[in-house]
Amino acid sequence: NSIFFTAENVGYISGTNIAKTTNGGYNWTTLNSGITTPVSYQAVFFPSMDTGYLCTRGSPTYLLKTINGGINWTIVYSNTYYETLAGIDFINNNTGFVCSTNESKIIKTTDGGNLWQSIILPGFLPHPVSVHFTSLNTGYAACELGQFYKTTSSGSNWIQSDLIFMNDVTFSNESTGYIACIYGKILKTTNSGSNWEIVPRYN
């Protein structure tokens, strides 16, 4: 479901389990998250070499944190009912955002996961699947039903625009970003999301 590298040779992959490589992906070692109930590990994100976050889908659902490169994991957020936690993005080790897809919200922490604030996105069933921040205040969220959101207030307020069905959003700098859509379409912006153009395909 998700892959994240903290260095050229060190990376993590999540799916039916969570695994780690230290040789550029040639070999993978399954990590023990400590969760004994069947879950799907939806996303993994490391804001630094040793500190990382891992989220699940299921009932119950969990958001886990490690501070030693995946050796040990602790639960920093959980729900007893079915919830799909999807995209994760952290600005630093303490401030981060996680998509709660079926709850149509984004949860935010500013203290490394000890406390979480729920931010309900405006509009009809936005279902966020990916979130990416280019600075402490400016961030973007892509939703599976086509809505696209931008915030300039660190998530306090979001401005909505409709695009097409999306899977992921990422930015290489404050101005240039990309959205991965269904059916292989990629959108690109060079003005912080004010306008988007389709990236042509090459054979």
Explain the overall architecture:
The protein is mainly β and 203 residues long. 0% of the residues lie in helices and 49% in strands. It contains no helices and 20 strands. It has strands spanning 2-5, 11-14, 18-21, 29-31, 40-45, 52-58, 61-66, 74-79, 83-90, 96-100, 105-109, 117-120, 128-133, 139-143, 147-151, 159-162, 166-171, 177-181, 186-189, 197-198. The strands form 4 sheets. Strands 5, 6, 7, 8, 9, 10, 11 and 12 form an 8-stranded antiparallel sheet that branches. A 4-stranded antiparallel sheet has the order 1-2-3-4, with no helix packed on it. The two termini are 26 Å apart.
Q: Secondary-structure blueprint of this entry?
A:
Layout: E1 2-5, E2 11-14, E3 18-21, E4 29-31, E5 40-45, E6 52-58, E7 61-66, E8 74-79, E9 83-90, E10 96-100, E11 105-109, E12 117-120, E13 128-133, E14 139-143, E15 147-151, E16 159-162, E17 166-171, E18 177-181, E19 186-189, E20 197-198
Antiparallel strand pairs: 1-2, 2-3, 3-4, 5-6, 6-7, 6-9, 7-8, 9-10, 10-11, 11-12, 13-14, 14-15, 15-16, 17-18, 18-19, 19-20
